[in-house]
Design brief:
Elements: H1 2-28, H2 31-39, H3 43-67, H4 74-90, H5 95-107, H6 112-137, H7 147-170, H8 172-182, H9 187-203, H10 210-236, H11 244-259, H12 269-282, H13 285-313, H14 318-334
């Protein structure tokens, strides 16, 4: 019973947020108008969006492999990344992030705690770039004057986090020395912590390698530029008058919507953020929701097909991975360094 209550405390707030937003959307939006908008969309542009989604995923595989300091093959990085996105769409607690670190550690020589920091870096830069995109688009969007405060707040927090990460890994020997002094009375915990710090610093090493970090930034920015163009095209398929800045504003809003606690796949929060941004731009709630639902469909389609293929060649299913991750988490929680 206690474990059920503990899990509920983790998923219930996000579930309530998602359900509340879904209820609001269903109350205010005319679903028949949504269906009509989807039927009248420009499917030629939507085909280009599908191609762009695949290209985006391919480039994101390159990004993650660079963060891993190219210690794994591109195939392993790409397929594991796709598995992680599939897990995030259907499993609770953002298990896709933990899942891809866990899955990659099983098929390569890298350990879990060496892989996890690379995902943290990736997510931190995602937030930073999405904040920059949102802030850049706001001056061109009438009625969105308060949105830049969100971008500045998130961007500022991200910068602070990056500085802390950089200083930590740059002064890792000093950090190790401090840890040694603080844990001298507990040799078992000290041994466990030393192993943990060694793997963790190894995962953050890209921050101190100028060549790798420059390559990471190049491919990361390119990936986000592809995403901006994708969002512009998917909006233009429903709103022919769309401008490129609409794609920037919609993408920035959707990125923050996906970061809000919610049900798996950012159900409700993605539609609320992306659809709300488009409603602000156009005043058309129904067509805005049609765009958001189409974007979700593309996300499920691409990550679903590639992620399911990756799991199938490993003889895995979503349910089996979920059970393994729960078992792995409980094992990590019970680890006794003594």
């Amino acid at each position: 019973m206690s474990s059920i209550l503990h899990d509920a405390r983790r998923w219930l707030p996000g579930a309530l947020v998602s359900l509340a937003l879904v209820a609001v959307i269903l109350y205010f939006v005319d679903l028949r108008a949504v269906v009509a908008a989807m039927r009248s969309a420009d499917y030629r542009l939507l085909l280009f969006v599908l191609a762009g989604s695949i290209i985006w995923l391919i480039v994101r595989g390159i990004v993650w492999r660079i963060l891993l300091r190219e210690q794994v093959s591109y195939k392993d990085a790409f397929l594991t990344l796709s598995e992680g996105y599939l897990l995030n769409n259907f499993l609770p607690f953002r298990l896709g992030e933990i899942g891809r670190a866990f899955l990659l550690s099983r098929k390569t020589g890298l350990v879990f705690m060496e892989i996890l920091p690379t995902i943290v870096i990736e997510r931190v830069f995602d937030l930073a770039i999405s904040a920059i995109i949102l802030i850049s688009a706001v001056p061109f969007v009438v009625g969105a004057s308060g949105a830049e405060r969100i971008g500045f707040a998130v961007g500022g927090g991200v910068v602070v986090g990056l500085v802390i990460l950089y200083l930590t890994v740059h002064n890792r020997e000093h950090v190790r020395e401090m840890f040694q002094n603080l844990t001298a009375r507990w040799p078992g915990f000290q041994h466990f912590g030393n192993n943990f710090l060694g793997s963790f610093f190894s995962g953050l090493a890209v921050l101190t390698d100028g060549r790798l970090f420059s390559r990471f930034l190049f491919w990361m920015v390119l990936d986000w530029l592809i995403a901006v163009f994708q969002y512009f095209l998917i909006i233009a398929a429903f709103f022919p008058q769309a401008k490129l800045v609409w794609g920037m504003f919609g993408l920035g809003a959707a990125a923050f919507g996906g970061a809000v606690p919610s049900l798996p796949g950012a159900i409700g929060t993605f539609e609320g953020a992306f659809g709300g941004a488009l409603t602000l731009l156009t005043g058309d709630q129904s067509t805005a929701l049609a765009v958001a639902l189409t974007a979700r469909l593309y996300n499920y389609l691409v990550s679903g097909v590639v992620g399911a293929y990756a799991l199938s060649i490993e003889g895995e299913t979503l349910s089996s991975i979920y059970k393994q991750l729960v078992k792995f988490g409980s094992t990590q929680g019970r680890t006794d360094p003594d």
